[in-house]
Amino acid sequence: MSQTVIGIFDNSTEAQQALQQLISAGISQDRIDISTPGTSGSTTSSTSSSYTDHDDNDSVGNFFRNLFGADDDDNVRSYSEVGRRGNIITVHAQSAQEAQSAAQILDEYGAVDIDERAEQYRSNTNTSADVNTSGAIPIIEEELQVGKRVVETGGARIRSRIIERPVEESVRLRVEHVRVERNPVNRPATEADLANFREGEIELREQAEVPVVGKEARVVEEVRLGKDVEERQETIHETVRRTDVEVEDLSTDINRTSTTNTTSTTGTTNLDLDRNPNL
Hints:
Radius of gyration: 52 Å
Protein name: DUF2382 domain-containing protein
Pfam families: DUF2382
Largest sheet: 3 strands, antiparallel
Order of helices and strands: EHEHHEHHHH
Number of helices: 7
Distance between the termini: 107 Å
InterPro entries: DUF2382 (IPR019060), Stress_Response_Assoc (IPR052967)
Strand order of the largest sheet: 1-3-2
Oligomer: single chain
Shape: elongated
């Protein structure tokens, strides 16, 4: 079942970011409409032509009236007031799950609260009307608010890898060699010689030392990462603005005007007395 999801953004940057995220989430671009204030163009189709006209029968009002129905005046009025000042993204979702996903993306990327923003616009309008009617001038004063935020300024990374290097070590090895000696002898055989006059064998084996290599792993150094924290005092130089009201006393001008008129009248009276000596 098709569902319509609408998000209104204060600026086009947020709207474009939300649009790209909707497309990345798998929503086809031909099911997404985007309109910006004061234009009639959109990514795929247009949903508004003017955001400066506050007539409920303009294209924005007609769009939301068709969406909510002619009887839902509250939603039509609220969405129209906010929509004329913002960037509208309309998503034609094909399922409830897709509509919920689109709504989450629009909220995450800065879609405004329609009811809250519409009430704010109405409040601003009423306040302006009251000021103009009563002749009051609001005194506005800026206050300097200094906060802190954390930014990355650098760092260090430890990366370990295995390297090989050739080593040499000398060792003395002993090798045995069997030597056969034959010495010519010419003497009469003794009884011992006769006792050994039989078959037999004598064996003498050779031995040799060969190198034996072993390895032992030993920890020779440890490398760690740590942080040293220092604090510094910084003075912020900024300017703040305040409404300055100058009150002018108009009673001085009124008194000056009254004095001039009195002098003129007295002069006229004196002229009349000169012309009529009977008075």
